[in-house]
Amino acid sequence: MSDESVQHPSLIVPVGHVEPVPRRVRGTIGGHVAFDTRRALYVWEWPAYPQFSIPVEDLVDGVLTDDDHAEPLGAGPALRHTLRVGSEVREGAAWVWDHGAPAPLLGTVRFEWEALDSWFEEDEPVFVHPRSPYSRVDALRSTSSVRVELDGVVLADAPNCVKLFETGLPTRYYLDRTHVDRARLRHSATVTRCPYKGTTSSYWSFDSDVAAHEDIAWAYDFPTIHANRIAGLVAFYNERVDLYVDGVLLPRPSDPTR
């Protein structure tokens, strides 16, 4: 899941829309390549983001077995299959599109994301779901000052920041750790993943005299190259703290994780 949302918002694309993926896409299980294709398709089964659909001919070590079960998916009818890769068996892991689905999808298979051990676009790992071609992430250095308070306690006070602009989400403000009072924060075991930024390295909670506030801040020590400017910096949920930018208190947006 993303640190901000389980379903990452992006430009709304109609359900059933299909278009080519201009990248090599691979999936692995147990160290074996299940498929390797340069002919993948994006298919939107719901508006927020697409899935990959892979030509059946481009299976490498993957073998599909028909489960004799048909079901309508977001883009049309599909036949459920079990995926075998070497000695690994992933039941119900694959959906082969059936007649009634958009014509470009016929002869392709959509895999359940978690059924694969890893996914790659070219040689870069992909997390959670495919990156939408209609979403983008921009991390920009800024001289805006940022102060973070919660229950009257100052948790961070930074003279500058990196602003991360991500399609469909509130602007996030990433701060140098030297400007964050981590002595007041409690480390959390939470780990989340985002297809645009990577895997979080740390989460923090805060116990005030009033209440316990879980998972209010996070950091990516090793983000994707697209967001490398936030490496090692700390961001707080705008939705869960009082966040002042250049001395102005920002309104709290609705919390997409609740």
Key terms for this structure?
2 domains, 258 residues, Metal Binding Protein, Guanine Nucleotide Exchange Factor, Chain A, 7-stranded antiparallel sheet, mainly beta
Structure in words:
The chain is built from no helices and 24 strands. It has strands spanning 18-20, 25-29, 32-37, 41-43, 51-55, 62-73, 76-85, 88-97, 108-111, 118-121, 124-126, 137-142, 146-150, 153-158, 161-166, 172-175, 185-188, 193-194, 198-199, 202-207, 212-219, 234-236, 242-245, 248-249. A hairpin with a 2-residue loop joins strand 2 (25-29) and strand 3 (32-37). The chain has 258 residues and is mostly beta strands. The chain has 2 domains: 18-126, Metal Binding Protein, Guanine Nucleotide Exchange Factor, Chain A (Beta Complex), CATH 2.170.150; 137-249, Domain of unknown function (DUF427) (Metal Binding Protein, Guanine Nucleotide Exchange Factor, Chain A, Beta Complex). A 7-stranded antiparallel sheet has the order 1-4-5-9-8-7-6, with no helix packed on it. The protein has a 7-stranded antiparallel sheet with strand order 12-15-16-22-21-20-17, with no helix packed on it.
